[in-house]
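Researcher: Next entry in the queue.
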Amino acid sequence: MLWHLTDSDEAAAQPAGKTFKGTRLPGAVTFPAVLTLTLWCVVPALIVDALAVPLERVEFEGASQPSIPGDRIQGYLAKPEGAGPFPAVVGLHGCGGMHETTKQKLADDLVAAGYVILLVDSFATRAIDQACTAGWAIVWRRVSDAYGALAFLAGKPFVDRGRVAAVGFSQGGWVTLLAAGTVAPGDLRFSAAVAFYPLCRAAGLRPAMPTLILIGAADDWTPSEDCSRKVAVWGTEGPPIELVVYPGAHHGFYYPHLQPGRRLLGHWVEYNGDAADNAGVRMRQFLDRHLN
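Model: Structure for this entry, 292 residues:
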């Protein structure tokens, strides 16, 4: 079934109390389970706070795997004002790390929405510059990092340990999907997962939690078609899975520093303000639905 959403549906994708003017994203497509929707979305204007949220550098242990202890990992923590407990997000960067502008943008966005955020740096303590040509070993290490970050947050009195999501980008999105479909170590579980342009073909098991995938139709690094096929294979039994595909958007569309676009390791990467803004709204709405 093909649905065309009305203006009232578009308004639901905007933060309450705000009216946005912007261009439409023609033909953005979302797949909740096997249902296909064509989305015509009003994209919000970017609102920038005068003061950036301060990020505190922290360290924690990655979760141990059978016969393999977790590594010591660095991260950057930010929280809303007050005692909480607040819902929280574990942020997972791509294969090239997380650029400072993206790190601050994500922290500002989520803390303003009432979330604690821990941005995991999987490379600093391992002396890795980039892992774009690395294999599965670092990816599985990063799954351990994600669960170590979850345990670290669970030990904080201002975090509600039952309301923590994983949000990942590119390789971090792949890590997010693996963590969402993997039997977690210990008794801690993520409650939701958001993956920006992940490597869907290598995602593995169906996520055991509500999951949102955001990807560009023009992505030649992690093709959206792979995500469509994977969601179809996963089927409809279990927690909801949503896939949103942005027409004309390339890999890295959320990263402000990719202006102008450029070629990286043979792939085109480029910021897309319309897609980034809309994806940010959808991410927050998704987290609000499943963590609040």
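Model: The mean pLDDT is 83.
Researcher: Noted, moving on.
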